[in-house]
Amino acid sequence: MKNWITIALLLFTYTFSAQTAFSPSKQITLTFFLTANGEPVYEVLYKNKSIIKTSSLGIKLKEGNDLTSGFSIDSIGNWTVNEAWKPVLGEQSTIKNHYNEMSVALSQKASERRMNIIFKVFDEGVAFRYEFPKQKNLNYFIIKDEKSEFNLTGNHKTFWIPGDYDSQEYPYMETKFSEINTDNLNLNNGIGLKTIFSKYAVQSPLMMKSEDGIYINIFEAAVVNYPVMQLDVIPSQYKLTSHLVPNAIGDKAYLQTPCVSPWRTIMVSDDARDIVSSKMILNLNEPSKIEDTSWIKPMKYVGVWWEMHVGKATWDYAGSQNAQNVLTKDLIPSGKHGATTANTKRYIDFAAKHGFDGVLVEGWNVGWEDWFGNWKEDVFDFTTPYPDFNLDEINAYAKSKGVKMIMHHETSGSVANYERHLDRALELMKKYGYSAAKSGYVGRIIPRGEFHDGQTMVNHFNFVARRFADYKMMVNSHESSRPTGYSRTYPNYIAAEAARGNEFNGWSNGNPPMHETILPFTRLLGGPMDYTPGIFEVKMSLYDKAKKEQVHTTLAKQLALYVTMYSPLQMAADLPENYEKYLDAFQFIKDVAVDWQESKYLEAEPGDYLTVARKDKKSENWFLGAITDENARTSEIKLDFLSPNKKYKATIYQDGKSAHWEKNPINYEIKTMNVTSKSKLKLVLAAGGGTAISFVPIN
Predict the structure, then answer these.
(1) Are 264 and 100 in contact (CB under 8 A)?
(2) Distance between CA atoms of 572 and 574, rounded to whole angstroms?
(3) What distance in Å separates the CA atoms of residue 341 and residue 585, rounded to the nearest whole number?
(4) DSSP state of 237
């Protein structure tokens, strides 16, 4: 809903004079000018401190003159927007969108081509994009590269993962900017497909902190019909330059005017809470294109999933790639298949008993015997179940229990195959009443030679969201390109993985305790993450005494993640029998909301800690989550976010006195007390620990 929009458009002719735009608060200054040879450049100040030194802008073309220099300014437009809008699902019921915009129209005399650069300056940062108007001398064109520079002012602390065309599933490195070097990575990290392209390249979003306490984040928004932007690094110069992911033949993007690039974003503040709570990325995306959104619902779910990761069951029915009977070609069952009718009913019963909305089942369909590592095109048909999975019986049973089934579409990276079968797969979902699907893209992409983060795959992920919307269904993508706010435009794109999730704790060297304190400053800025929290039995030796892997958190921290890691789609990821052992702690997962009226970031420091309080959209209940890294932590929290003149019952799930993520992770305490908005609470977090609290009004 728009509150007010003020437009003051001024058109003049400029040569080389600097043009300036300010944030509404006047704390951020954006300056743009042309150099003597007509090269577009910009600078960013925050509270009169230099954040981005003079940095070049421009586009390199495969054919003809590059759009990098030789420009003159035709006109400048300035205006202000101050509005509010309501997300279908979100961290808050209303999002404010307030910025000052400067539009610079450029023309290149040598090529007789035009290009506009649009700047938006928010209170929490700056965004810019390239705009290519319809014109005689630029119609169809191919981008060879993009020259967007971010010249930093110092050797900032940096949280980074390596530039990789296919995966973001790395644990974060915390180093000085000058120490960025992918040669220092431990690549024995459980990632099945890595395409690291340079020792001096990182992925965005890139989170940094200067020595004088300024937080800086480089990212992008509204990546549509364009490849993902990664960042080339010159460590000694503190310099970043956009690096677009190529396609199979080395081109970056195929475009036709009129068109635009994604937004390039620079968030900046001296308060980390401004970064982690920012809705700037969402604001830079187009409003929802779905008129009737009544069918888009938040969900809490359980599923046949974790038991495969811990080795209790398998996705495949026959157990190996050579499990077919030589004469009949029939699959010979291994006896370890997880997605059976009986096992699925067990999960449905558990979901119904404890009030969960849905049940996910992975491994239900034929094809898992040789699904990975063969670059095979015709892997799955997304409609044919294994012999021990009765679609009719299962879905009738779920319906009788008031539980929704969640479909699983693993593609094995064979996107061509998935798109051929997509409508039939969606028709099957429609027939049985599925409201949502989890998609997966493990492995090398087909069409062969494409990358997960190239233009082709970005278009595919967005297409799938649109196609699901046609059927009034929601989608949750795994192994996709990381979101950049497209869930505002298609809110049925309810969540994505696109980062190192909880699953890596089950069978690799895992996620360090600081991992979950970084993700909200990076991956989650672009949209909700299906992190799959809620693992109570954190040590994998429970399933095999020889195993040493474990989840690198306490049980209490697993509860807190339901609040600190925003998603309207949240999984209780552990096995039902494990929750039955700890029903007192499990109560928080049952109670916690997943769609919010209001969110308050109370404490934040990337890599160290995060404390968040959120108000349920449908009630007066509040929930709080606090997490820390490998260091134990104590803090005092004011409860002034609660409604005044009300009493609340606070149920506190906290680390026990001897809790430690490695030595004693399942040591927790639960206590209750009455509180008001004038109360204060002392939080005591163990190493790798957390606290989760529910606040329920007392009548």
Answers:
(1) no
(2) 6
(3) 29
(4) G
Q: Residue 280: which H helix or E strand, with range?
A: helix 280-283
What are the angstrom distances between the C-alpha of 624 and each of 621, 628, 689, 690?
10, 14, 14, 10
CA 123/CA 28 separation, integer angstroms: 7
One-letter amino acid at 28 equals I
CA 617 to chain centre: 22
Question: What is the model's pLDDT at position 330?
Answer: 80
Q: Which residues pair with 73 in a beta bridge?
A: 14, 106
pTM above 0.90, yes or no: yes
Nearest-10 Cα torsion for 246, 249, 255, 256: 170
Q: Counting beta carbons within 10 angstroms of the beta carbon of residue 181, is it exposed (0 to 12), middle (13 to 18) or buried (19 or more)?
A: middle
Q: Can you read off the two tokens belonging to residue 612?
A: 């968040």
Q: Do 622 and 648 touch, CB atoms closer than 8 A?
A: yes
Q: Taking the CA of residue 601 as centre, how many other CA atoms within 13 Å lie in the half-sphere pointing to its CB?
A: 22
For residues 90 and 281, is the Cβ–Cβ distance under 8 A? Answer: no
The CA-to-CA distance between both ends of the chain, in Å, stands at 34
Cis peptide before 258 (omega within 30 of 0): yes
What would the 3-class secondary structure string for 520-576 be?
HHCHHHHCCECCCCCCCCCEHHHCCCCCCCECCCCHHHHHHHHHHCCCCEEECCCCH
d(CA 518, CA 171): 10
3-class secondary-structure state, position 163: coil
Catalytic residues, by residue number, are: 503
Contact of 85 with 94, CB cutoff 8 Å: yes
Backbone angles phi, psi at 105, to 5 degrees: -95, 120
The string of pLDDT tens digits covering residues 605-664 is 999 999 999 999 999 999 999 999 999 999 999 999 999 999 999 999 999 999 999 999
Cβ atoms of 580 and 590 within 8 Å: the answer is no
d(CA 435, CA 429): 7
CA 112/CA 137 separation, integer angstroms: 7
Question: Does residue 445 contact residue 407 with C-beta atoms inside 8 Å?
Answer: no
Structure token pair of residue 11: 């058109």
Q: Measuring CA to CA, which residue among 529, 500, 47, 601 is closest to residue 275?
A: 601
Residue 288 gets the label, from left (phi > 0), alpha (psi -120 to 50) or beta, of: beta
